[in-house]
């Protein structure tokens, strides 16, 4: 099963490499990875999506927790949560396809953020499945470039990941 | 307020931390630190002859004394030479602090002379690592390093120290930090009481229980409690290689150690058990054999201080995360005044176990007859006799290691000092030096093989310099015996590169360093040679003992089988 694990990490040099290294060292897989500072300058928030059965996920969270730089973590997929990813896509937009692309962009509630005579740059946010669906819809038109941030997420309701 | 340079802070911190010995080797990036060590007498620096030996010596010291071993090496090749020893300590959870010189901060990343990203290189084999970024942080970082290395599940910590951090011209305030706090590191101090109660209920109801205990009991200093608990319950106990001696092996409740080359009765008891009480052991593949066939009828209680060890390879029915010592103490108080519910079943269980014991009695190996080559097993038994089973025994890796563990009988923890997890040839001799330094008046024996000894024999020179009186028992089978055994079993005896051609004349080699060597080729020579070798506890003596090169280590678990699937000799199997 796919899991989204969010980690509060010490903002120390080398901390990220310990997390990433753990995954390769123990043969765990990383689907997406997203890191950025938080409101607390001493902490970064890192979100990783990974695939594994319960035993593997249990080991992943235990080993992550063992890293001295990992201050706290949560497996968001254990509860209700909001998952978001942002993607920028350059798609061909010539002739009849130009209107078709515009329509699809609207259907997906995406936005065209840059335009040239031959292409559109589209920005879209949503969960990973929505982004995948958009790419599939655009494939016949011609995708020129894709930039995805990787998944970020947060628990629904009152639950808060903080110190 | 005291102002000290970074280098002086290091020397001073080590003193304030109570460090007795530091094992190291100098070089450019570490020279300010060496100068600071030169100007003090509190911490004794031991100059090894290879940085790998520094780590193994510190490791041996740590295992014997329970205190963290301390290593100092220079950048680049000094640090990379230490890597094998760091990995060895990591695999066996040994507390160690490794101080590495580094090129000056402004040169980092430029491929400067003797620059290696040692924090990067060692990342997967350390508990944690630090890079010093300002001299003023040295006391706190070092305190954190010692704290991390020695608490929770212990392990090695690397501290990378760029040369400019130790410059004699820059001085900062020094205060010894008595305490440190790490917000993300809070090792558990006790197990979950509800879980412990549940475990005890299972224990009292068990019909065929076995204790299976490991290195965690040794490092957790819990062997007294363990002995008490096991005796109270009257259950059989088997230990891992790392756990040997945590329960006295001479006691009849002890079945010896288990796993690939463990005793027949241990492996049989594990396989047939209905309850396994694992404490400070990690269900390593050298113990479990094929996990899908592992102990098919047993419920499993697993106590470990490291949550990631629990249910890693074998799922625990009652997981307990906590240090062996406090969990065992809690178990003892719960057992107090209660009796096992199935005394009859337990008696039957013991009958079964005694039956297995009886099956192998007197058949473990065939002693040599007059005129035949000595058997390595009988040599180990003779070493055990001459040292009354009280020596510290370090080993290298190979057949001799298994024979040492099988035929020397240990009644105390920390007495068998061996590289269990990584299986590092070259470990034994430098580790013995470290042990001897923490126990100068005890017998310290390194049981080695001619292959392993040649990996670290330069340390004879270190022993010369510091008068380290260890005994070296070289079980010389003129081959990489363990490799050869596998080739006999799996490659139709095609002995690819397992024959040690052109062995040195060990006698002359040892004498060249000014030590005594004794060569033993016959059974008659053995006892007098051992008497002579162990006459003076402070003299280094090397025994070159020619043993049967064709001997195999048995029992040996059959690969991919269950615990009980074993070869028992060259011709018998279960
Ligand atoms: C550094 C290292 N290299 C290789 C091995 C693989 N290995 C395991 S046992 C062994 C043979 C050891 O020979 P020796 O020290 O003579 O011991 P014996 O088995 O003959 O008693 C080898 C090569 C190892 N464990 N460590
Ligand atoms: Mg050999």
Characterise the protein shown here.
- The complex is a heterodimer of chains A (163) and B (574).
- Chain A has 163 residues and is an alpha+beta fold.
- Chain A folds into two domains: 2-79, ACT domain (Alpha-Beta Plaits, 2-Layer Sandwich), CATH 3.30.70.260; 82-152, ACT-like. Chain A, domain 2 (Alpha-Beta Plaits), CATH 3.30.70.
- Helices cover 29% and strands 40% of the residues of chain A.
- Chain A has four helices and nine strands, in the order E-H-E-E-H-E-E-H-E-E-H-E-E.
- Chain A has helices at 15-25, 54-66, 96-107, 128-138; strands at 2-10, 32-37, 43-51, 70-75, 81-92, 111-115, 119-126, 143-148, 152-155.
- Chain A is elongated and about 55 Å long.
- Chain A starts with a strand and ends in an 8-residue tail after the last strand.
- Chain B is an alpha/beta fold and 574 residues long.
- Chain B has three domains: 2-174, Thiamin diphosphate (ThDP)-binding fold, Pyr/PP domains (Rossmann fold, 3-Layer(aba) Sandwich), CATH 3.40.50.970; 193-360, TPP-binding domain (Rossmann fold, 3-Layer(aba) Sandwich), CATH 3.40.50; 376-553, Rossmann fold, CATH 3.40.50.970.
- Helix content of chain B is 37%, strand content 17%.
- Chain B has a six-stranded parallel beta sheet, with helices on both faces. In chain B, strands 11-10-9-12-13-14 form a six-stranded parallel beta sheet, sandwiched between helices. Chain B has a six-stranded parallel beta sheet with strand order 16-15-17-18-20-19, with helices on both faces.
- Chain B starts with a strand and ends in a 7-residue tail after the last strand.
- The mean pLDDT of chain B is 97.
- The A-B interface holds A 10, 13-14, 17-18, 21, 25, 55, 58-59, 62-63, 65-66, 68-72, 163 and B 119-120, 123-124, 127-129, 131, 148, 182-185, 306-308, 311-312, 315.
- The structure holds thiamine diphosphate and magnesium ion.
- The site of magnesium ion has 8 residues of chain B, from helix 18.
- Chain B: This is Acetolactate synthase.
- Chain B: Its EC number is 2.2.1.6.
- Chain B: It is an enzyme of class 2 (transferase).
- Chain B: Residues 396-545 form the Thiamine pyrophosphate enzyme TPP-binding domain.
- Chain B: It catalyses: 2 pyruvate + H(+) = (2S)-2-acetolactate + CO2.
